[in-house]
Each structure stands twice: as structure tokens, then as C-alpha cells.
Amino acid sequence: MTNQPSLPELIDLLNRKYENVKLGGGQKKIDAQHKKGKLTARERISFLIDPDTFFLEIGAFAGDGMYEEEGGCPSGGVIAGIGYISGKQCMIVANDATVKAGAWFPVAAKKNLRAQEIAMENRLPIIYLVDSAGVYLPMQAEVFADKEHFGRIFRNNAQISAMGIVQISAIMGSCVAGGAYLPIMSDEAFIVEGTGSLFLAGPYLVKSSIGEDIDAELLGGAAMHCEISGVTDNKFPDDQSCLDAIKRHIDKIGKPLSAGFDRKAAILPKRNPEEIYTLLPADRLKPYDMLPVLECIADGSELDEYKPDYGKTLLCAYARIDGWAVGIVANQRKMVRSGKGEMQMGGVIYSESADKAARFIMNCNQKKIPLIFFQDVTGFMVGSRAEQGGIVKDGAKMVSAVANSVVPKFTFIVGNSYGAGNYAMCGKAYDPRLLFAWPTAQMAVMSGATAAKTLLQVQTATLKAKGEIITPEAEKALLEEITERYNRELSPYYAAARLWVDGIIDPAETRKIISAGIAAADQAPIEKKFNMGIMQV
């Protein structure tokens, strides 16, 4: 009997948390926006995207449980994602003024950079809906000066423009200090009358710096910038008319190039995607068969397995998902018997599994087929037999194939994601175009139980070295404390808060996300030649 929640219970928690995060800074702050005649960030995005189309949100849980001493920062104070505008996929980035007036927390900068990265990789036009008070000053040291801090956003603005990727900004509220460069480094900058303002220094700073007494509208309002400075291109009376103008501009941009990924008419899986809810055991230690899970995602539930009788702890298969041709690499979680008659543990990568996966990844690059990774991995096999069999060599070959792959990669963390297994299965460090976790995901160097026992041994040894006596009761209490802390860090929400993953999703949404991701990737032709480099064979 397990006390771990079932997948439907975890999805219910996910839905409740998402509904809460959508409130941003809370209903009072939303009402205050409306009183000013402004839409909220989410309302602006909803108005902007085409009706009845899918908005693929990135980083909804950014900042979750962080900055509590500062009052929290839901969604990192920024809403971002891929949506269709006038029939064209775009990256949309909108400051949430209900969260600390849209001020930039450290995670806000990280989220904006992630949104720009996705746009650059996929050559997606970017729409910035600006409404921000600038850097959150109490935390300026964590957001200002480093390479991946706030300034990198403007560097990216310049490089995105040089790449020929369209950027359109709408100043719909405050836009101050260094943040003023973002819209003006875009191709076009619109501003909303009465609510939009843009300046390097606001009225208070101007007064204290040079003694000039001037109000925000005269200093940097819509009329001044459109009629005198020429900094902004056009002004609009309200949010809706400004957003309508963006739609008209996107409607007229030229068609994107194509990477040429193959797509046919989509076929629904024969298995209901919601069957996944019953296929995954609540107890993450229990084995299960990954193949039926994949059949809930693949078109017609059809998979053409590659080397099905070899390296069985990894499933490699060609399939279609929403019509797109894909190559799937997935950890098999049930116990299997090797061709030599040896039992092998599910979720573990053995030498022959790594060898198979490396060959499969090379084949997908040869055939220009996007790769989808489904992680439920505890790591590579250990022990003398594995070492003598060259596990490090075969693991390195798989890691090299993943690292050098030029076709777009997409990763979904189904369950465990431990140690070097995370790397080999295309973790964050290996540049997946999108990386999402299911509510059952756990990410760490090793499992909670293993880590807790290891840390306990270290801590008790340290205490004993100091001459302290550890009673069995104290040792048990210490183990529980370590386990509780480590398990908090295993949570997918801990990872999502820090943008180690792009979000947490209902598994039934996986097909939709893969399809949107490949559609975006198809707009960026592959320019780099696939080369594995030097490797031991």
C-alpha cells in the first residue's frame, strides 16, 4: 500500500495550482488594472491570439514558492508562450503588472531569456507587451550585472533583429530605465495613450537628479514620443486597438522558411490518452511497461520499433504524433531479459541500450526526423560487470549523439530523472527545444531515499568526529529531516519554479505540445551539419 498520490490526484493538484497562478498578484490587483482601463497580461494575450487556438505557455510556475519574504512572484511576473496571431506562430512575452507592478525579479529575467531563446531557435516573431516598473531594486544585485542577467535581453534584441526575426513591442504601461531599450530595439514600437509611458528616468529621479519638475505624460507619454521624439511609431487610445494593430502587422509578414519535417494528416491514437492515468503506478518505484504509454500518444497507437530485441531498457521507435514524423527514445520501466538471458532493471541504461540509442539518434539526424525523449531514468548501470563491459564508453557515445544532434529535440520527464541518465536522455543542458514535466516527475542527482541515506552517513560521521553521540532516535529524526528536504527539491514544481523545465503538464496534453513544438521548429531550417566528433566505439 502506498501513500503516494495517484496521477489523477496529481493532475487535480496541478489544475488547482494553475488556476491560482493565473490570478497573478490577486483579484484586487486585477480590479485595479481594470479601473485604469487596462487589460491584464493574460487578457491581452487572449485578445491577441486567434480564437480557438492553442496557447503553449512557457514557465507558468516560474517563481513558485520563491521570494516569499518579498511577497512572492507568480509566474515570474511575466506571461510567455507560443500562440497563433493572424495564422502565424509567434512568441508572446507580456509583463504582469499585477505582480509588483511588473518589476523584474531574477526569475523574470531568466524567463524572458528563455522566451527569446525559443524564438531564436525556431525563428518565431516576438511580441513584447510591456508594462513594467523596471528592475526590482531590493534584488538588483541578482538581476543586473552578470552574463545571464537583465542586460542579456537587450543583447538578444540586437541579435534577433540581425537574424531577421520580427520583433514588435507595445508599451501598455510603465517602461522605465534600462527596460526602455527593449521596445525601441524592436522593429516597431506602439504605445497606448494615457497608460503607456517610456523614459530612462521617471519624474522623481529627474527631479532628484537635475531639479526638473515634470509629469510622466510630458516626460515620456504617447503624444510626446509619437509627435516630438519619434521614439515610438504609433499611438492608440486603448489596449484593444493597440493589440488589433499588432494583428494587422503580423498578418502582413512574409511566410517563414521550412525545415522540411514530414507531416501527414493526423490520426488519433487508438488508445485514449487518458489511459496514461491508469498505466503509471502511484508508487514511482514500481515497474510498468512504457510501450502502452507511448501508444496513448502516437498516431493510431502505431510505433515502428528500432532493434526491439536489443538493448531493451530503452525503447527506440519511429512514429507520428499529430501527423508529424518523429523518433522516440524512451526509458522502459519494466524488468526485461537481455539476449544473453540476463535480467535487467527497468529505468536503467545498460551498454547495449546506450549503443542502440546512439545509433537511432544518428539515424534520425540522417533522415531529418525530430526526436522526442521520454525520461523515467535512474541512471546508467553500475558495478564491475558494467564497468568491464565499457558502460562509460557506450554512455559517452549516447551523450555525444544527443549533444551533437541537429534535428530538434523535445523532452518530457515522465518519472525519475536522475544523474547522468538525465543528460543522456536530453536534459536541460542538451538544448531540447521544449522541456516539460509530467506531475509524476522527479529530478535530482539520485533518488531521495539513496541521497538521504548517503547524506545521513556524512552528517553522522561529522558529528561523531566532533565527539557527539548519536542515538538511534536522533539518527532517525535526522534521516527524516534530510529526506523531507531532499524530497521537496525532487518536486517538479521546484524544477518549474527555477525554469529547469518549461512547465508541468497533464500527460493527455503531450500530443498537442509536441505538435506545436515541431510546427515552430519547422520554421527554422537546419543549417548545421550533423557530426559526432571523436568517440570510442
Automatic annotation (TrEMBL):
A GO BP entry: L-leucine catabolic process
SUPFAM superfamilies the UniProt entry points to: ClpP/crotonase
PROSITE patterns recorded: COA_CT_CTER, COA_CT_NTER
Listed InterPro entries: AcCoA_carboxyl_beta, ClpP/crotonase-like_dom_sf, COA_CT_C, COA_CT_N, MCCB/AccD1-like
Record-level Gene Ontology MF annotations: methylcrotonoyl-CoA carboxylase activity
Any Pfam family hit: Carboxyl_trans
Top-level taxon of the source organism: Bacteria
Annotated ranges, domain CoA carboxyltransferase N-terminal: 7-265
Entry GO CC: methylcrotonoyl-CoA carboxylase complex
Domain annotation CoA carboxyltransferase C-terminal: ranges: 260-528
PANTHER family membership: ACETYL, PROPIONYL, PYRUVATE, AND GLUTACONYL CARBOXYLASE-RELATED (PTHR22855), METHYLCROTONOYL-COA CARBOXYLASE BETA CHAIN, MITOCHONDRIAL (PTHR22855:SF13)
Protein name in UniProt: Acyl-CoA carboxylase subunit beta
